[in-house]
Amino acid sequence: MKSKIMPSLVLTIICAAAALLLVFTYELTKENIAEQKTIRFNKSVEALFGDTECTLIDNNFGENSILAIAVTSDGKTAIQVSADGYSKGGINILVGIDENGTVSGIEFVSLGETPGLGTKIRDNEDFRRQFYGASAPDVQIDTISGATFSSKGLKKAVDTALKIYSENKEVILNGR
Question: Is the dihedral of CA 44, 50, 51, 54 positive or negative?
Answer without folding.
Answer: negative
